[in-house]
Amino acid sequence: MRFFPLVLCAFILLVERSEAQQLPNILWIVSEDNSPYIGCYGDSLATTPNIDQLAKEGHLYTHAYANAPVCAPARNTIITGVYANSNGNQNMRSNYPLSDSVRFFPEYLRALGYYCTNMSKKDYNTSTTDTFWNESSLEAHYENREEGQPFFHVVNTSISHESSLHRFTPDSSLMHRPEEMVLPPYHPDTKEIRHDWAQYYDRITLMDHRVGEVLKELEESGQSENTIVFYLSDHGGVLARSKRFVYETGTHVPFVVRIPEKFKTLRPSEVGEAVDELISFVDMAPTMLSITDQSIPGYMQGRPFLGPRKTEEPEFVFMFRDRMDASYDLSRAVRSKKYRYIRNYLPHEIYGQYIDYLWKAPSVGSWEQECTKGNCNEMQMAFWKQKRAEELYDTENDPWEVNNLVDNPEYADVLVEMRAANRSWILNIGDAGFIPEQMLLDLVNQTNKAAYDLMRNDTFDLEAILNMAEKATEGGNIDLCLRGLKSEEAAVRFWAAVGLRIRCDQLTKKHKKALKRVLNDESPDVAVLAAETLYLHGENDLAINAIVRVLNQTARPFSRARALSFIREFEITDETVKATVRSTYNNSFEKDRFRYDLLASEVLMSKWSDTAR
User: Which of 147, 286, 324, 345 shows its CA 20 to 30 Å from the CA of 409?
Assistant: First the structure.
């Protein structure tokens, strides 16, 4: 009798293993920082035979989008199925905890029996520990799984990453010729820009070679006919006005899926055909669960675009841009198949804010210098000027998105519809980006709750905050902003201060008096905005004193980063400011590479040192 349970257990294991073998293997090949500058997307400059062949054997998505135009927030969205600006992880390298309600989706695959491996970049923009990988390293591989076990394997390649432009390749060594480059209309025709474009195309070619190696390895493993292959980039890029910006060049990504004959019922079209369907990264997690026929958790904000649980195509997909390294900005974007709408909530900030990492590419400095010399046309100059609060583009007919249609009455209905879609999305997902970062972080630390949870437990009145953000930045009543400065909600006061900063030239004595009252606001972000506005009105001493007070709050690094941006933008050379920046930097014991206030301090101190010489 003791033998029977052993036989039964063995039978159950055989059945489970048999069922597991019916599950598809899943292979992701993820490149970095590249838009669809690829042959199968019609780019005549591209040399990408391996991705082109993959598209012939599979399905090329023509409307695939990263929800964020930079890696860490984009990857946070991918791995959770929740928009990073809903998780509270929208700022570049914000590294805050996830809610207990939100899980990394490979956990569900492992529970189903998958062997999950990652080679090897993670960069999920959260402090929450990722314990879901069986292996995550440069050596991680599906070959280490048990016999017959299905796998989910991610191969990341950084070959086309922005940093590839930081290492100069002589023209004589380039595969692509600078003189043959087709420049966007917003880029001036300089030697450096042509060179960076050519070098970038070279890197895409090398990246394509790596894709070929991974596919060959899969074929040689004998698992190709059991494996669904995804190729995608983590966002667009990489020359200035692409990566980090919610334009087509920053968010439109190459996306190819190959589904073998065994799983042909999952195919979205005939093999080799393009798929004209709107998808975005927030859809990736629910899609992986759908193709393994698992139910989709209610917290996931995307929708499955493949598998038995596939849902209808949406009318819009959504994007977000927040702090990029040490520079603050806040934009939201809505994309239909034809149009792109962008809402800029800090329009007084120029597009081309200084970001140290971006300026490492020679092309960026070249563009800036040409415009400083007066050699740029209006379209090329726009990058170095303040933004419009709203942008609307017919991307189908204006692929570089340079003709803003906001003031064109023929597109009024489109504008109203997409504006409403943006507002609805922000409220529906609990967008944490409208709470100043330091303010939100202080509450996370005080309550030991994730930002995702704080946005859902009545800690903030998001609708009231959004109302002020919209009114303050769209040219509304200036006295509404004045009343907003008296709000008990600190985030409302912040957006009221933004509104007064935008209307700096309209301020009267009563407005300046109100701003002086908030120079000591409990929120240092409110104080920085007030100081900046008063500085522009000649109240230099008051403004400098307020900025110094913020700089001395070393436990609030993100408010300090905002203050340091102001110092750099307006080239403040006050000796008290200089001394404070130096002393707070020297006395900081946390000089890690993601303390952006310290990095901003380094940039300023270097600039002051150069000026002194």
Answer: 345
71 is catalytic: yes
Check residue 538 and give its pLDDT.
Answer: 95
Domain ranges in the chain with CATH number 3.40.720.10: 19-318
Q: Where is 528: in which H helix or E strand?
A: helix 524-536
Q: Which two tokens stand for residue 327?
A: 């520079």
Instruction: Give yes or no for residue 595 having a pLDDT over 60.
Output: yes
**C-alpha 88, offset from chain centre:** 13
Architecture of domain 19-318: 3-Layer(aba) Sandwich (3.40)
Answer yes or no: is pLDDT of 598 > 60. Answer: yes
**How many residues in total does the chain contain?**
613
CA angle 485, 489, 494 (to 5 degrees): 50
* φ and ψ of 350, to 5 deg: -75, 160
Contact present, 578 and 572 (Cβ < 8 Å)? no
Question: What backbone torsions phi and psi does residue 127 show, to the nearest 5 degrees?
Answer: -85, -10
Q: Tell me what the mean pLDDT of segment 102-124 comes to.
A: 97
Report residue 140: phi and psi, to 5°: -60, 135
Rg of the chain on CA atoms, in Å: 25
From CA 599, how far away is CA 606, in angstroms rounded? Answer: 11
Residues 438-455: pLDDT tens digits?
999 999 999 999 999 999
User: Which of these, 21, 83, 569, lies nearest to 346 by C-alpha position?
Assistant: 569
* 18: phi then psi, degrees, rounded to nearest 5: -65, -45
- In angstroms, rounded to a whole number, what is the distance separating the alpha carbons of residues 317 and 282? 9
CA distances from 251 to 65, 404, 522, 571 (A): 5, 18, 37, 32
- How crowded is residue 100: how many other Cβ atoms within 10 Å of its Cβ? 11
Residue 243 has what pLDDT?
98
Distances from the Cα of 396 to the Cαs of 140, 338, 340, 392, 508, in angstroms? 41, 5, 10, 12, 45
What is the fold of 430-612?
Leucine-rich Repeat Variant (1.25.10)
Cross-strand bridge partners of residue 342: 333, 391
The mean of the pLDDT values for the chain is: 95
Tell me the backbone φ, ψ of residue 279, rounded to 5 degrees: -135, 160
Out of 9, 40, 71, 481, the active site residue is 71
Q: How confident is the model at residue 588 (pLDDT cuts 50, 70, 90)?
A: confident
Residue 217 pLDDT class (50, 70, 90 cuts): very high
DSSP state letter for 392? E
254 pLDDT above the threshold of 80: yes
What are 282's two structure tokens?
Answer: 């927030």
Portions of the chain given CATH number 1.25.10? 430-612
Q: Is the pLDDT of residue 306 over 80?
A: yes
Q: What is the mean pLDDT of residues 553-564?
A: 96
Token pair listed for 174: 């380039």
Can you tell me the mean pLDDT for 597-611?
A: 93
Residue 15 CA from chain centroid, whole number: 43
Q: For 396, which DSSP code? A: T
pTM above 0.85?
Answer: yes
Tell me the β-bridge partners of 332: 320, 343
Chain-centroid distance, C-alpha 285: 17
